[in-house]
Design a protein that fits this description.
Layout (H helix, E strand, L loop, with lengths): L5 E6 L5 H9 L6 E8 L2 H13 L5 E4 L3 H8 L3 E4 L6 H10 L3 E4 L7 H14 L3 E3 L7 H12 L5 E11 L2 H4 L8 H4 L2 H4 L1 H12 L3 E9 L5 H6 L28 H6 L4 H4 L25 E8 L4 E10 L3 E8 L2 E9 L13 E12 L15 H14 L12 E2 H20 L3 E2 L33
Parallel strand pairs: 1-2, 1-4, 2-3, 4-5, 5-6, 7-10
Antiparallel strand pairs: 6-14, 7-11, 8-9, 8-15, 9-10, 11-12, 12-13
Bound molecules: nicotinamide-adenine-dinucleotide.
Length: 463
């Protein structure tokens, strides 16, 4: 069996990386082996090697500068990319050029130029580029896809989608590298890539044009002043206000955060606990926050549907509500989730049954609520199912076609990239003005406009 094992290497060894590493050397070890790990931060390379050793596996460590040497020496079948977003494209392309397949975390990349590079390099090399859209695999989201495919509300004509990040999980984006567009593309790319991918996949369609408006209204020095947090430091660990600030992150008190970030600061000077209220510019705050916390988009789909989407990063609860309006009725899907801080060792985003539901309103008949399907594990039970489909060769065909490649990766980020451009210019931005030659992603078939619709039953004739 070992002769048929796939060899992996991994670049990017932060909070998200362990899920993939543990999968390759653990549950799927029968089919896969991990040859090496790589990161710009020497401390996190050592931590990853140690974690593998504890599971009985020795892996070699490489610095980011030696990425190409790692590929030459280890000759992996596949490179797992879990670095910060702005570096994905470079590793994806270098890996494909070296003859490797790629598994990359979302967002596939964070701007149009890098996206074009990936699309062109994938075509030239013919390698596989898998984008791990774990959100597709959560049981209730899969259930919604099945309901829409069954034609229960006919053809979807419009969608209202509101995503809420709370003051714990949402705030966390304003203290890490994510708070700068040059790293993450802002939340419209970094976070909303999941949400746009879900809509694209739910509708089996691709976006055509985007209009957006956004601002940063909450994570500002003015909000801090209204809380009376006037004597703030640049980061939580040394902030004079930390004992009374509800937004303080204690990276020394949490073992995982301490090991992964606080004790690795010495290697690269990266602080994971910067003040969420930092201004954009100013003494001691460079680089400050330059992403939005309040965003609204209108997206026109190629098939004619319209999407209204909002993203709020300072909600009192975590979750989302999406309403699909179709030719035969309406589907309402609301989810409340547990909140978390990335990399703190807790299971991220578990579904809370209370406050979560699917409700269907057919035209001309009574509304009903199907029993909500749930599953256990990270991101609403999505992560374990995603890993099965990625690493287990016996997982078989997926009728819902949830495994995504660079085409779905591109269309999901381009909604956000177009949104950023629209916010900058005030104009509608066409997706095909940003990146060319993407190709249509593989999606399952949906009800067609030729399918018959049902009229309201005739009233009995009055006597
Ligand atoms: N699908 C999901 O639900 C999900 C959840 C969390 C994170 N993610 C994604 O996973 C990726 C990693 O996120 P994270 O939370 O682990 O972040 P993190 O900050 O904990 O880790 C990022 C790692 O990348 C390394 N890095 C930065 N620049 C590098 C470079 N040039 N070369 C090599 N390594 C470099 C850092 O040193 C760090 O170890 C991101 O793309 C993020 O969007 C996805």
């Amino acid at each position: 069996m070992s002769g048929q094992k796939k060899t992996y290497v991994q670049v990017g060894l932060g909070g998200r990386s362990s899920m993939f590493r543990d999968a390759v050397i653990g549950k799927y070890g029968e089919y896969s082996s991990l040859a090496a790990v790589c990161d710009i931060n020497e401390g996190r390379v050592k931590l990853a090697q140690m974690a593998a050793r504890e599971k009985g596996v020795e892996v070699d460590g490489y610095s980011a500068a030696d990425f190409d040497r790692m590929l030459a020496e280890k000759k992996p079948d596949c490179v797992i990319v879990t670095t910060k977003d702005s570096t994905h494209a470079e590793y994806i392309c270098r890996a494909m050029i070296a003859g490797c397949d790629v598994i990359t975390e979302k967002p596939m990349t964070m701007d149009a130029e890098k996206c074009q590079q990936i699309i062109d390099t994938q075509k030239r090399t013919g390698r596989n580029c898998t984008v791990t859209f774990n959100y597709r695999y959560a049981a209730p989201r899969t259930q919604v896809k099945e309901l829409l495919m069954s034609g229960v509300i006919g053809n979807v004509l419009s969608v209202d989608f509101e995503w809420l990040l709370d003051t714990k999980h949402g705030a966390d984006y304003f203290r890490r590298w994510h708070r700068n567009k040059s790293n993450s593309g802002g939340l419209l790319v970094h976070k909303a890539t999941h949400h746009f991918d879900l809509v694209n996949w739910w509708l089996s369609d691709v976006p055509e044009s985007v209009y957006a408006s956004g601002t940063r209204s909450f994570y500002t020095p003015e909000t801090a002043a209204r809380y009376g947090l006037t004597n703030r430091g640049t980061r939580c660990v040394e902030c004079p206000e930390k004992s009374r600030c509800s937004f303080c992150l204690d990276i020394e008190g949490n073992e995982k955060l301490r090991q992964l970030y606080r004790e690795c600061e010495q290697y690269d000077g990266y602080f994971r606990d910067k003040c969420v209220f930092n201004p954009e510019n100013g003494k001691n705050f460079e680089p400050g926050v330059d992403i939005e916390d309040t965003m609204a988009l209108v997206v026109n789909y190629a098939g004619g549907a319209r999407l209204n989407y909002t993203l709020t990063a300072y909600s009192p609860w975590e979750g989302y509500a999406i309403n699909f309006n179709g030719t035969a009725g309406r589907l309402q899907f609301t989810t409340c989730e547990t909140t978390y801080v990335n990399g703190d060792g807790t299971t991220p985003g578990e579904l809370l049954r209370e406050g979560s539901s699917i409700k269907i309103f057919p035209h001309w008949s009574n509304a009903y609520s199907p029993e909500l399907k749930t599953s256990k594990g990270g991101h609403g039970g999505a992560d374990p199912v995603l890993l099965d489909y990625i690493f287990d060769p016996s997982a078989g065909e997926d009728p819902l076609m949830r495994k995504a490649d660079q085409r779905a990766g591109a269309y999901s980020i381009l909604c956000g990239v177009a949104g950023n451009e629209s916010m900058r210019t005030g104009s509608v931005v066409r997706i095909d003005s940003l990146v060319q030659g993407i190709g249509r992603p593989d999606y399952p078939p949906m009800p067609t406009v030729a399918d018959p619709l049902t009229l309201k039953p005739a009233e009995p004739a009055s006597p």
